[in-house]
Automatic annotation (TrEMBL):
<feature type="compositionally biased region" description="Basic and acidic residues">
    <location>
        <begin position="21"/>
        <end position="34"/>
    </location>
</feature>
<protein>
    <submittedName>
        <fullName>Uncharacterized protein</fullName>
    </submittedName>
</protein>
<feature type="region of interest" description="Disordered">
    <location>
        <begin position="15"/>
        <end position="48"/>
    </location>
</feature>
């Protein structure tokens, strides 16, 4: 079984669904959105 298949199977499992839902809740928080935007900004400025 390839890595992609194993990840896909895990994400369909109950535990995987819990983690996906937790990730969605965390991403909905404004402070986490701000942190991600700052990280993306830093990463994009390094490429130039």
């Amino acid at each position: 079984m390839s890595l992609v298949q194993r990840i896909s199977t895990f994400l369909r499992s109950p535990r995987g669904q819990q983690l996906v839902e937790r990730g969605r809740r965390e991403l909905a928080k404004p402070e986490n959105q701000r942190k991600l935007k700052q990280l993306a900004s830093r990463l994009s400025s390094r490429r130039r």
